[in-house]
Amino acid sequence: MTYEALLESIPDYAKDLKLNLTSLVKQTELTEQQVWGTVIAAAMGARHPGLTTILHAEAAKFATPETQNAAKTAAAIMGMNNIYYRFTHMFQDNTYSTIPARLRMNGIRTHGGDPVDFELYCTVVSAINNCSMCVTSHERVLREKGVSKEAIAAAVRLGAVIHALALVFDTQTLSA
């Protein structure tokens, strides 16, 4: 299925999602690489294989291979970190927060994309995965590096729409 066919397959009850997606991939708060890297990371974070395949194919038209790799790396690492760090801050007992994570995260340094954009993708996936500790940490880094709150909100908006589309398509069959 193509991106255009995907848009046409969005049911009427989710028309707002279609309109939001088509406008948000054109928002000016983000660079083209940030938009399409966010699309890739958010699709992976939303865990819908068909939607991920279609959105990744569309993103590949605009995103460099380095951006694509960084976005996929961010989604993979946040898929792990968001679970672990969310676990550590769920308890009144701070002992878990003092235990070393001992999780390999070399991809944070070796993804090959823009480091600021990588932080943006991590923030979006962390928001999808509902890890407030990771969202707070990555948002702080983005702000320290000069990224505006408007740009951060723009990326998370895009991630929210993609996550909602995954929910819609969980009840439908998509073929790639």
Q: Can you tell me the residue ranges where pLDDT is under 50 for at least 5 consecutive residues?
A: none
Helix/strand structural class: mainly alpha
Q: If helices are DSSP runs of H or I spanning 4 or more residues, what is the number of helices?
A: 10
Helix content percent band: 55-70%
Would you write up a description of this structure?
It is a single chain. The protein is globular and about 50 Å long. Helix 3 packs across helix 5 (65-88), helix 3 packs parallel to helix 10 (149-169) and helix 8 (115-128) packs across helix 10 (149-169). It has helices at 3-9, 15-24, 32-46, 49-59, 65-88, 95-98, 107-110, 115-128, 132-144, 149-169. The model has no long low-confidence stretch (mean pLDDT 93). The chain has 176 residues and is mainly α. The protein is built from 10 helices and no strands. The protein has a single domain, classed as AhpD-like.
Give me a quick take on this structure.
The protein has 176 residues and is mainly α. 70% of the residues lie in helices and 0% in strands.
Task: Give keywords.
176 residues, mainly alpha, AhpD-like, 10 helices, 70% helix
Helix/strand layout:
Layout: H1 3-9, H2 15-24, H3 32-46, H4 49-59, H5 65-88, H6 95-98, H7 107-110, H8 115-128, H9 132-144, H10 149-169
Helix pairs in contact: 2-10, 3-4, 3-5, 3-8, 3-10, 5-8, 8-9, 8-10
